[in-house]
Amino acid sequence: MSNYKTVFFTLGILQIILGIFMLIPVTVQFFYGEIDSSFFGASIVTIIFGTLFFLSNIDHNKKLNLQQAFLLTALSWLSIAIFGSLPFIFSNAEFSFTNAFFESMSGITTTGSTIISNLETMPKGILFWRAILQWLGGIGIIVMAITLMPIMNVGGMQLFKISNTDSSEKILPKSKEIALRLIIIYSGLTALCAISYKILGMNFFDSLTHSMTTIATGGFSNYNESIGFFDSFSIEISAMVFIVLGSIPFISYIKFLSGDKKIFFSDTQIKSFIKIIFFSIVILTIYLIINDTSQLSVRSIFFNVISILTGTGYVNAQFDNWGGFPIVLFLGLMFIGGCAGSTTCGVKIFRIQILYSFILNQLRKIIYPKGIFVLKYNKNPVDNKFIASIISFIYLYLVIFLIIAALLSLTGLDLITSISGAATSISNVGPGLGSIIGPNGNFSSLPDMSKWILSIGMILGRLELFAILVLFLPSFWRN
């Protein structure tokens, strides 16, 4: 395993960092008089394993090739989900390993699905740890999407290479500078969101935890009614603003700070993202006006469209009671997701844009057989390799969605729960549809096998499918 020393060395560092973060909820436990050994014990175990990985691979060559980058990506998220489940297991809340792993995986992938049926009675330390997991998952996916995935050529993400000179041998040095800037921006937005929530009426604890899950577009809340618990229009407006800020490409913030003051108005993804929100709200409003004015609430329409599209999963209304069309619309929004290089998941807007342009070009070729049509994205030409990568990603995304839905139905779940559960896991949204896992439901009553299937769907969706599936190809491991 000497060829993988850099992988395990990096995993060791990540586990040590995770172990240190586990000590933070101890201060919350102390403040609320809930002191026990759960977080301290989990921290010790995690740091010990991390130190062993670190010390046994300290003589690594400080290089990371493409094969190792894929392995590191998969093992990082899996190991953090496993060790992140320890505070749940060691707590007095009596989590089974399946439930603890599901909650941890849902947190680190910023999915937001939960097996906790009564959040109000949960220890504050556990609630804070859930928020920390989503916050770490948010910054983790941003750094990976901007530094690793473009080099790994995952699902068209190569379009977002920061420099044409990037190579797999230069991943680590290049990542450090970019990651530091991203962490500063991400932390700054989190702090602003927390201050906003506090000013608008949340207590200190709620403002801190909700700010972390808002910027991460994760959606873990401290209450069964989610953001709807506060019944505050101003808080919901603040949430929508910061959800949108967490859903646009974080590389745009770097470009803005570097002098490109028009980036937020010129970026193709951001413009399409805003258009999708606008038209979804208009269509849903018209539908509810025509069919059922008693369900019409512009406030709820705005909030839930933004929350579902971005995969945040906060809710302020039982939108599954709005009728059949809103359910179909929200299911579609789950698949679309936000912008590449943000904390959101789903297919991503840039892939939808390129697929749409590709289809238009194909139609033009039918009309004008001798015409030459160049597909462009952000005014740059897109070659056939990128198009093939994007089409294969979308195809595989839909196939895996159908497989997960079929497997869930085999575990005894009804049709709407199976379909929405598959969609919410692979798109990392949070709530599903129906009476069981709907806006005010949870995943606690699902069979253990269903939870494991959903957990697999979460990590597949978070890591853009190929980053996991490629590891199962024998040819990948051949030199």
* Strands, count: 2
Gyration radius, to the nearest Å?
22 Å
Q: Record the strand order, biggest sheet.
A: 1-2
What is the beta-strand fraction?
under 5%
Low-confidence stretches: 163-173
Mean pLDDT: 87
Shape, per Cα inertia axes: globular
What structural class do the secondary elements suggest?
Answer: mainly alpha
Terminal-residue CA separation: 14 Å
Major sheet description? 2 strands, antiparallel
What this model shows, in words?
This protein has a domain at 359-477. It is built from 21 helices and two strands. Helix 8 packs across helix 9. 64% of the residues lie in helices and 1% in strands. The protein has 479 residues and is mainly α. The protein has a two-stranded antiparallel sheet with strand order 1-2. The model is unreliable at 163-173 (pLDDT under 50).
Question: Could you outline the blueprint of secondary structure elements for this entry?
Answer:
Blueprint: H1 5-21, H2 24-31, H3 38-56, H4 66-84, H5 86-90, H6 97-108, H7 124-152, H8 171-199, H9 204-215, H10 233-247, H11 250-257, H12 263-266, H13 268-291, H14 298-309, H15 324-336, H16 349-367, E1 376-377, E2 380-381, H17 384-410, H18 415-426, H19 434-437, H20 448-462, H21 466-469
Antiparallel strand pairs: 1-2
Helix pairs in contact: 1-3, 1-4, 2-7, 4-6, 4-7, 6-7, 6-20, 7-8, 7-9, 8-9, 8-10, 8-11, 10-14, 13-14, 16-17, 17-18, 17-20, 18-20
